[in-house]
Amino acid sequence: MRRSLKKRQNGIIVIMLAVLALFAVLFTRSLALREERAELQRKLADLEAEYETETERTAELEEKRAYMSTIDYIEEIAREKLGLVFKNEVIFREEDEDSKQDN
Fold it and tell me: At a CB cut-off of 8 Å and minimum separation 6, what does 73 contact?
């Protein structure tokens, strides 16, 4: 009878140790998963911010593309880059300090 009681106690101790080991493994895995989740949330926030920035940039580029197809843009480039003017248009230019001294 004592031997049977001793076996039962040993069995209970083994089961308790196994359960404690299982809890220890689950707890450490839970901590690792929480850290991984926090890292993934940080990455998600970064990606959302980057997406917002790129969306704004896309809108700006779309506006610029629309402007570049207007007559105003074509006239601006013709004036600035090519030096073209309309017929009967008078252009006033400032004199440089160097050209004033030459006279």
Answer: 67
| pTM of the predicted model as reported, rounded to 2 decimal places | 0.53
If one counts the domains in the chain, the total is 1
Q: What mean pLDDT comes out for the span 52-57?
A: 98
In a domain, 80, yes or no: yes
Residue 83 has pLDDT above 80, yes or no: yes
Residue 63 lies in a domain: yes
Q: Find tokens 């998600």 and name the residue.
A: 44
Tokens at residue 83, please?
């030096």
- Name the DSSP letter for residue 96: P
Question: Can you state the angle between helices 2-68 and 71-80, rounded to 10 degrees?
Answer: 70
Answer yes or no: is 95 within a domain: no
What are 94's two structure tokens?
Answer: 């400032």
Residue position matching structure tokens 């004199």: 95
Query: Does residue 96 lie within any of the structural domains?
Result: no
Helices (H), the chain: 2-68, 71-80, 97-102
Domain region containing 33: 2-84
